Amino acid sequence: HINLEGGAEVTDVVSAMTTPDPEILYQLLYKMVNEKVEYLVMEASSHALELSKLYPIEFYIGIFTNLTPDHLDFHGNMENYFISKMSCFSFGSSIQKTDSGNTERK
Can you give the pTM of this predicted structure? Predict the structure, then answer.
């Protein structure tokens, strides 16, 4: 569920996916640019990263919260899942939550 507030207008977009498909996401980003939005915080799913749905967005800061065997049906194994999650850190800074012990490869 995305709620974009800009000026007097509120845009609500309901998506069945954590990260909307590009045809929805890029329309929202375009609207945000026109509304002079300076910052965006969004969840980037490992599926979207693996399928390059966020290309060519450049993340300046990424937060890695966990690595659990949730999406092995898609990624096949933990190594592929880890690589997908880490792909958003190919540029910029990263913050890794380490208190749970689930951000490192085992």
Answer: 0.70
- How much is the pLDDT for 81? 92
Phi-psi region of 20 (alpha: psi -120 to 50; beta: other; left: phi over 0): beta
**Distance between CA atoms of 31 and 50, rounded to whole angstroms?**
25
pLDDT tens digit sequence for 47-97 = 999 998 888 888 888 888 888 898 999 999 999 999 998 887 776 666 666
Residues with Cβ within 8 Å of residue 26, at least 6 apart in sequence:
none
Residues belonging to the chain: 106
